């Protein structure tokens, strides 16, 4: 048998960005996948070294344009630690609520496009986008912008929460729960979905740890590790929630883990709303900031982003970060692609790639 | 470190302190959920040994490190450039990288 090389991308609807894959196939089965990245490389880390602290959130949130608030929050939290500033209690609750809504919105978008990748499932795509639109409307009313919110400031948020914030958040959580509970009906009982995800792209726990898988991909392989539980930040330690895991490690398990995570997020949101402090002051400091005067220690901070564990390692300086390293979880997850897709059929490649949930802007940085 | 149970390599990066480079490894123990940061000073030479035999996740991380900081990784082969193909500047994240200079991209 001779080996044929098929080129996929850089512009392709299923690569979710500019990703180029050189796939060596023997007949219909994949021998090797060469992943070419870097088409979106902008040198974010270098750019951030040249800007003042609070100019940088506009870069961090373009890291992951599907969940901009999550990276924004991680960066501003790292700056707060570097400056030794406390976050107001109500703001901590508000940030957790916003982060969890953002996680649900991100998982919904993933689920819709994933079903699209599998083909013939446009219904679910429309459904998930309907739910996501409600979350985006809610976030827009708080932040004033539809996609890039930039509403997180040192010590709190940009402006006070709207008067009906809690009421609307309760209603939105109920609305989403009512709708996502219909999804298993259309997915788990669908033979196309089962055939194209069960047993596809299996990742063992040993490999997942050794190869640096992150977030839902790692949990789908069986490791119960969630930064919100293992290294709690904000008020996550006051919420009771489970870390969904699965042992099979295939594309189906990744879907199950993400789906259960959405339910857990709703539970966290409700608990936060129940215990929301009476003093609803969430307004943070103005944008002008002078950094630490003495030479401080490096800051290392992990947050559980929708796609996995994001880490910021920052050496702070007076007005700008001296050096900032942002570990993107999808960079590690994409490096698994060639390992996962070996000996699978060519048509399964996009099932595997879709289940990894890659965002090219975050990978190329 | 791996013998001590740190089986999960989360990230590798470096910091350019102008007189020397510091390579940073972020390691994690999945048993007791402890995190450790290991730093290595590169005083004279710009090379470091690979850890790919212990952690497979080091593959892309080391390639990013070597492309962004111009650090040679000893003991492994990098088949091709991963992130960028720059002409003239080898290490964009070093402090000596001139900001705003017109670097030409080496298109294949």
TrEMBL record, chain B:
Residues 3-101 form the NADH:ubiquinone oxidoreductase 30kDa subunit domain. One of its GO terms (molecular function) is NADH dehydrogenase (ubiquinone) activity. It holds the Pfam family Complex1_30kDa. InterPro entries: NADH_quin_OxRdtase_su_C/D-like, NADH_UbQ_OxRdtase_30kDa_su. PANTHER family: NADH DEHYDROGENASE [UBIQUINONE] IRON-SULFUR PROTEIN 3, MITOCHONDRIAL (PTHR10884:SF14), NADH DEHYDROGENASE UBIQUINONE IRON-SULFUR PROTEIN 3 (PTHR10884). Belongs to the complex I 30 kDa subunit family. This is NADH dehydrogenase I, C subunit. It comes from mine drainage metagenome.
């Amino acid at each position: 048998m001779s080996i044929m090389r098929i080129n996929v991308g850089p512009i392709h609807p299923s690569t979710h960005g500019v990703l180029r894959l050189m796939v060596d196939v023997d007949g219909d089965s994949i021998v090797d996948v060469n992943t070419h990245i870097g088409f979106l490389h902008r040198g974010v880390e270098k750019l951030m070294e040249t800007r003042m602290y609070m100019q940088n959130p506009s870069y961090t949130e373009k890291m992951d344009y599907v969940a901009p608030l999550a990276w924004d929050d991680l960066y501003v939290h790292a700056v707060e630690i570097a400056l030794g500033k406390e976050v107001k209690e109500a703001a901590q609750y508000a940030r957790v609520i916003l982060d969890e809504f953002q996680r649900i919105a991100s998982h919904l978008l993933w689920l819709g496009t994933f079903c699209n990748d599998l083909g013939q499932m446009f219904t679910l795509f429309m459904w998930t986008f309907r739910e996501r639109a409600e979350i985006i409307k809610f976030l827009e009313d708080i932040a004033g912008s539809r996609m890039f919110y930039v509403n997180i400031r040192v010590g709190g948020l940009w402006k006070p929460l709207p008067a009906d914030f809690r009421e609307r958040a309760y209603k939105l959580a109920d609305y989403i729960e009512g709708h996502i509970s219909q999804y298993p009906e259309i997915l788990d009982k669908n033979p196309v979905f089962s055939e194209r995800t069960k047993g596809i792209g299996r990742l063992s726990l040993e490999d997942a740890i050794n190869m640096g898988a992150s977030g839902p991909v790692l949990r789908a392989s069986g490791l119960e590790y969630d930064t919100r539980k293992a290294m709690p930040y904000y008020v996550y330690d006051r919420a009771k929630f489970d870390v969904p895991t699965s042992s099979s490690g295939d594309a189906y398990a990744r879907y199950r883990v993400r789906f259960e995570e959405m339910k857990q997020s709703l539970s966290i949101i409700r608990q936060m709303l129940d215990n929301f402090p009476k003093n609803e002051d969430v307004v943070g400091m103005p944008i002008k900031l002078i950094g630490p005067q003495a030479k401080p220690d490096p800051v290392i901070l992990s947050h559980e982003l929708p796609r996995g564990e994001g880490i910021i390692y920052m050496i702070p300086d007076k007005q700008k970060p001296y050096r900032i390293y942002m570990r993107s979880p999808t960079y590690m997850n994409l490096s698994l692609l060639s390992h996962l897709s070996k000996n699978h059929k060519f048509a399964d490649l996009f099932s595997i790639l879709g289940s990894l949930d890659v965002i090219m802007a975050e990978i190329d940085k | 470190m791996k013998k001590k149970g740190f089986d999960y390599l989360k990230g590798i990066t470096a910091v350019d302190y102008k007189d020397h480079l510091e390579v940073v490894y972020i390691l994690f123990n999945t048993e007791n959920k402890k995190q450790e940061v290991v730093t290595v000073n590169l005083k004279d030479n710009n090379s470091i040994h690979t850890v790919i035999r212990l952690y497979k996740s080091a593959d892309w991380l080391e390639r990013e490190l070597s492309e962004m900081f111009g650090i040679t990784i000893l003991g492994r082969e990098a088949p091709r450039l991963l992130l960028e193909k720059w002409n003239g500047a080898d290490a964009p994240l070093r402090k000596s990288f001139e900001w705003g200079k017109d670097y030409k991209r080496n298109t294949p």
